[in-house]
Amino acid sequence: MEKETKTKEQIFQAASKLFYENGYAGTEPTEVLKNSALPEKTFSHYFPTKSDLGIFYITEIQAEVLDVIQKTLDKHPHFDQFILVWIKLIQRTISNDYFLGCPLGNIYSQTYSDPMFKKHIYKTFQSFKFIFIDYFSKNYQLPLLEARELSEEVIALYEGSMKMFAIDNNKKYFDHLRDHLLYIHKRSIGKRSIT
After folding, report:
1. What is the pTM for the complete model shown?
2. How confident is the model over 154-164, as pLDDT tens digits?
3. Which DSSP helix (H) or strand (E) runs through 99?
């Protein structure tokens, strides 16, 4: 089982780099195979199709990102504190010159019309929404509808900032993200006491 996990991780690392740099459509399975340095039979045993690999990629990236967000939310029950820490995490991620936007956002925009990917992408989006809905509902006792709308606003602002930064490499978009999120905090939950 450990060997299987290590082998899948090796393939995932090769695919992640290529999907991120070249896009999903611009990456051929042969390139992933070559970069993973594994025999073809081993590769096809774990991922019979490129779609299988793409769905695994989405699942793994989703788990990584959700884990970081959940840990950050848990550490910072006050939304304004979470915002400042989250922006620092994002800026640390982009501090090197290698940043092409949100990996999930990138693969979503390339595969959303594919029916096989559509349900996985929707599920991933819902997972992100629910993590914030839960946070706003528990910490601020917001009604479900209000918590959902805030969650959608947070995600839309985040993805927009990531896309804009990827386009012109200007960090001002993360200043805008911070400012808009702090405005949301003040407008919607700033006067509520945390529970």
Report:
1. 0.84
2. 999 998 998 88
3. none
